[in-house]
């Protein structure tokens, strides 16, 4: 599978539709700091998961409170470990529809490294294999919520409030970086083939040199 990087420095744009489970998360391929993720939520059951690098966990933040996010898109942001365990989540922030995981709001027990950042409708909540909410219930609160389950993401459940909910988003980030690209198998094969040819050529030159000297 190939990866597409966005044209703007420091940003990544969703390719097709990012998956919503561990095996289908989209890697934010690129180099350097990651300041924005652009994408869209097509309906209330659409969740996008992105693999990111957190380079400064204490300063990490993710926010859809910006003009690049559709004003009527009721976002929910949540952070998971790469094994799918809950870290933190936020639905509404500042009395609006948008979401904010502020710097320092996700605790300090975890360190830098790769994480999964999810975005979806505030009406569609992550659950574990027992259908238990991964994060503490919202209950109308605007604060960042911590884990409710010690188990991994297995799916989602709706909370019964289905309003038309779709639109474009811009997740603004701090303390994060893109995930470096990994060569595709075909590229690796070409590289190995090239090294083999170079090795064969060097071996032939060595044999030829030996014969000449004799």
List keywords for this structure.
214 residues, alpha+beta, Jelly Rolls, five-stranded mixed sheet, 1 helix, 13 strands, disordered N terminus
Describe, in plain words, how this protein is organized in 3D.
With 214 residues, the protein is of the alpha+beta class. It folds into two domains: 11-177, Jelly Rolls; 185-214. Helix content is 14%, strand content 29%. The protein has one helix and 13 strands. It has one helix at residues 185-213; strands spanning 11-13, 26-27, 36-41, 48-54, 61-63, 75-81, 86-90, 100-101, 113-121, 124-127, 155-158, 167-174, 176-177. Strands 2, 4, 6, 7, 9 and 13 form a six-stranded mixed sheet that branches. The protein has a five-stranded mixed sheet with strand order 1-3-12-5-8, with no helix packed on it. A hairpin with a 4-residue loop joins strand 6 (75-81) and strand 7 (86-90). Pfam families: PEP-CTERM. It comes from Roseateles agri. This is PEP-CTERM sorting domain-containing protein.
* Sequence of secondary-structure elements: EEEEEEEEEEEEEH
Which structural class should the secondary elements be placed in?
alpha+beta
Shape descriptor: globular
Proportion of helical residues: 10-25%
Q: Taking all residues together, what is the mean pLDDT?
A: 83
CATH class of the largest domain equals Mainly Beta
Radius of gyration: 22 Å
Low-pLDDT stretches are 1-7, 182-198, 200-204, 207-214
The major sheet is characterized as:
6 strands, mixed
Distance between the termini: 52 Å
- Roughly what fraction of the amino acids lie in strands? 25-35%
β-strand number: 13
Number of helical runs? 1
Number of domains: 2
Indicate the CATH architecture of the largest domain. Sandwich
CATH topology of the largest domain: Jelly Rolls
Protein name: PEP-CTERM sorting domain-containing protein
Domain Ice-binding protein C-terminal: 181-205
Pfam family, one: PEP-CTERM
